[in-house]
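Example 3.
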Amino acid sequence: MEPVLELTDVTKRFKGFTLDRVSFTLPAGCIMGFIGENGAGKSTTIKLVLGLLHKDAGSVRLFGREDYLTDKRAFEEIGVVLDETGLHDSLTPRDVNAVLSRIYGAWNPDRFFSLCAKLGVPEKKRIKELSGGTKRKLSIAAALAHDPKLLLLDEATSGLDPVVRDELLDLFLEFIQDETHSILLSSHILSDLEKACDYIAFLHQGKLVFAQRKDLLLETYAVFKGGEAELSKIDPARVRGVRRNQFGVEALAERAALPRGTVMDNATIEDIMLFYARGQQQ
Amino acid sequence: MKGLLIKDLICLKGTIKIYIAMILVFMVLGLVIASGDGGEEGIWTVLGMISILAAILPFTSAILDEQAHWDKRALTLPLRRSTVVYSKYLLGGILILGAAVANLCIGLAAGTELRELLPGIWALVLFSLLMLSLIIPLLLRFGAEKGRFLMIFIAALLSGLFVTVGSRIGIPGISQASLMRMLLLGSLAVAAIVLISVSISLRVYEKKEF
């Protein structure tokens, strides 16, 4: 399918941190979960896509265009939720509608207010009176009210209770029913990503470790449990990380590389992330 | 652009209400002073204060934007960086124009002659535009927190300059033609400063990261 977002060797250097040649492609009709430890570069990547930061090298193509930051018409097609609402405390959702309806050509007030009602965001309350979770819901309603094709969500479900997170995930899954819609969703809550995503991109210390189909990842890897002797029988090139503890050895390895009869568990996205990030250190 | 201006005006609603209350007090004071001895200077102090308040409002708006991290959101909208910059100048322009209209009404109510009032208000508009042109690039470069002190410094400096120049212009005997010539030259100079200020602001904001 036609890629919605394509990053090629995107690099950004800060003092003490480099986002190093990050490349991945988000196809249309998919949700990509963006995972990584704090400070891995997830928000930096999203900010580079949005032009909030200027990249030092590489290219970003949005809807097939590399010059999308120049005329910004492509921003009519994207909905963004960042860690902060970016809205003034004195505004009410009604004011937000008054402002954004004059900025987005395709803004739909009915959709905005129906999303607010669905998510329990009071129309007349000032933002400063809303809880953190309700502010986040307001941001999500605002991100969806102009019928975007791509949602860029940076920690959009963080800090929310499981019921609200589930509601939002349902909303995202509803959004993705249209095959031209896509989502890039960064989150620490890996269970949410496992539930909703088609692709997982994993950033570790500024480098992209992988960006793959979630099903393929879960099919490919398993968590081996055993002793050193059994571990030595597995091709080291097919082992992604090893953790040693007082009870033995755990390793993330390719399922196909494990000898028949080996004790193994299905790997979760969390296992994969932890073994990649920490397993090699032990 | 319209959306940005509406956002600014909604956010400034509270401050504008306070300023209008202050202007009403100034108006009463101005009228009282004007009716007393040496009232001429008193009314100009009031008009000057109104102009300064108008030029300061975009700064208040920038502080509110910074507190809300608005710029980060603005750049995720279908708005060019240049539009965000132009909107700050446009807001300043609208407020300065509003202050000029208020000044005209107050001046007329105080019984100041139109022949004297119009050049004075014109000079105040130029003064406010000059202040705006110096403040906005500094705001964009240093942010509202650091820019606060620079703004106070600029406001004090320009007010001093304006009072000095104003008192010279007001020397009895200066012809109306000379006054108009000075205002025209001043207008050209301020227009050039505004253009330079806009171009610096655009460059600063284009490079800015959020």
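Helices of chain B lie at 2-35, 39-68, 70-74, 81-109, 114-169, 176-207. Chain B has one domain: 2-207.
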